[in-house]
């Protein structure tokens, strides 16, 4: 299939999924930092995946600038985050952000996958964002199970990356 996978990844989890999907589809995986019009024009299928970062999706802005060159390509998207993909909230947020980023393809299939986070590797900016989030969570009167998990793992290594969990996306492409 004439496809391409475009990804936005800060620490490698989304990139790992993108490369896994690209390998399964025998197509290239291109970072949103480097993607150009030539990478997307004339494709039958474009997969976009981005890391979830507090209400934004890494790489989405850059990839969305090329949406006008997607032509007749089908677009499938995935996000990569720590939030539980089984929760409706996780899926609804991802859909809303991606529909906004790619308005010509709004309603595209969206898959939520889980990635890793290693606090020791975070940039100063991301570390500060997580510290602020922790302050908010600690003040919460009724933290959710997910809030509790995030507080318990604060400062540590969280490993949710599971490449085969991208298989439903691959099956949807082949359908
Ligand atoms: C500052 C910051 C904000 C984050 N916000 C979210 C979020 O809103 N939802 C989520 O599921 N994960 C969130 N994460 C976790 C990342 O999405 C997760 O670590 C993911 O694996 C990152 O993918 P990447 O390594 O490809 O960048 C956040 C992480 C950081 C450091």
TrEMBL record:
GO molecular function: electron transfer activity; FMN binding; menaquinone-dependent protoporphyrinogen oxidase activity
Database matches in PANTHER family: PROTOPORPHYRINOGEN IX DEHYDROGENASE [MENAQUINONE], PROTOPORPHYRINOGEN IX DEHYDROGENASE [QUINONE]
Flavodoxin domain residues: 4-142
Organism: Candidatus Borkfalkia faecavium
One Pfam short name: Flavodoxin_5
InterPro entries in the cross-refs: Flavodoxin_CS (IPR001226), Flavodoxin_dom (IPR026816), Flavoprotein-like_sf (IPR029039), Protoporphyrinogen_IX_DH (IPR052200)
Origin superkingdom: Bacteria
Gene3D superfamilies in alphabetical order: 3.40.50.360
Descriptive protein name: Flavodoxin domain-containing protein
One BP annotation, GO: heme biosynthetic process
SUPFAM superfamilies, per the entry: Flavoproteins
